Amino acid sequence: MERKFEELKKEYQEIPIPDELDFVVKKALKQKTKKPIKKILISGLTAAVLLVVGGINTSPQIANAMSKVPVVGSLIDVLTIREFTIDEDERIANIEVPAVENLEDKTLENSLNSKYLEEAKQRYDEFNEEWENRQANEAQTSIVNSSYEIKADNDQILSIERVFETTLSSGSSKIEKKYDTIDKQNQILITLPLLFKDDRYIDVITENIKEQMVKQMETNPDQYSYFYEYYLDDPNYNPIAEFDLNEKFHINNDGKLVISFDEYEVGPGAMGPVEFVIPTEVLSDILVSETYIH
């Protein structure tokens, strides 16, 4: 496994990074992975940017996730491969880059890892650009954090959640989430259409989410206030029509389909991100099989 990790690290280090990021790549992986990984802070005139090539012990989340991964063929790992970090008085960033290792399908593995790295670089660039634009108008402290969590890990599937949170000193914040669900047995990335016989699933899921919204607002109006409440008399209104459900789903460890929405997408920001677990009995007639959802 150590040899494969070194190969993955080398592959990441060879990916070109824009000069304007002004950070230095440092090796932080020791021969014995049990030793703690040291992070070296690189300070400059305007920013302190740290890029860490990390391992399994980089974060408690990863250590916990790794302790629960079962052996199915080869061991599939999820670990932190890099961090983009800025530590200034008015600008703070901590962007973790996850990587998947030991998939037999290296095309899928490389595709996922390249996506995660490019995603992190894009977030880093956007954060700096937005910060500079805000400073031109009104100085505010800006903080961006990104992390990831294993939402499901069993003999069949691995679901990875990436979370991006931006906070301003004014008190405003934004949380976004993205997901990937991998079939570990067949080495494929699961998509929503793959789960169903035809596209009826869109209407079925939509109607169930609407029912859950209404029930939550009726039983706990102080906690739930979806935008849908303003259109309850309109039978044609679809509160989630503008969203691609394929970007919003994951499968949890109980084998249930979960649809997630970011802040402000279906309700006020004070509600934060929201999730809807779709009952399997609602989907049973249109599922291709019960391999993933049951």
Automatic annotation (TrEMBL):
- What keywords are assigned to this protein? Membrane, Transmembrane, Transmembrane helix
Q: Where is the DUF3298 domain?
A: 195-280
Asked if the Swiss-Prot or TrEMBL record annotates the protein with the keyword Membrane, the reply is yes
Q: Which range is the signal sequence, renumbered to this chain?
A: none
Spans through the membrane: 40-58
Taxonomic superkingdom: Bacteria
Q: What name is this protein filed under?
A: DUF3298 domain-containing protein
* Protein's organism: Bacillus solimangrovi
